[in-house]
Specification:
about 70 residues, single chain, mainly beta, two-stranded parallel sheet
């Protein structure tokens, strides 16, 4: 089994306006208020200027993966 989003407990698949099954990850911080000083070494802030965060497909994998 591959360590990809679709098998990770942090992945949240969602409906969207595209024909692709994108979702989000609860390990990624989406906030205007987050300072890099407030992050743990294994966290990330994405797109803080717009505040919308990030989307990833079910076959994406990363070092934060944990089994469901």
């Amino acid at each position: 089994m591959a360590n990809t989003c679709k098998t990770c407990k942090f992945y949240d698949p969602s409906e969207n306006d595209w024909e692709m099954p994108f979702g989000s990850c609860s390990r990624w911080e989406y906030s205007y208020q987050t300072s890099p000083r407030d992050l743990a070494a294994n966290e990330i802030v994405v797109e803080i200027d717009e505040g919308w965060g990030a989307l990833m497909g079910p076959d994406f994998g990363c070092v934060l993966w944990e089994a469901k």
